[in-house]
Amino acid sequence: MAFGRSSHKKPLVEPVTLKILVAGGFGVGKTTLVGAVSEIKPLRTEEVLSEAGRPVDDLHGVESKSTTTVAMDFGRITLREDLVLYLFGTPGQDRFWFLWDELAQGALGAVVLADTRRLEESFAAIDYFERRGIPFTVAVNCFEGAQRFPAESVRGALDLDPEVELLMCDARDRESVKNILVAVVEHALVLADQGVTPVAT
Question: Which of the two residues, 166 and 199, has the higher pLDDT score?
Answer without folding.
Answer: 166
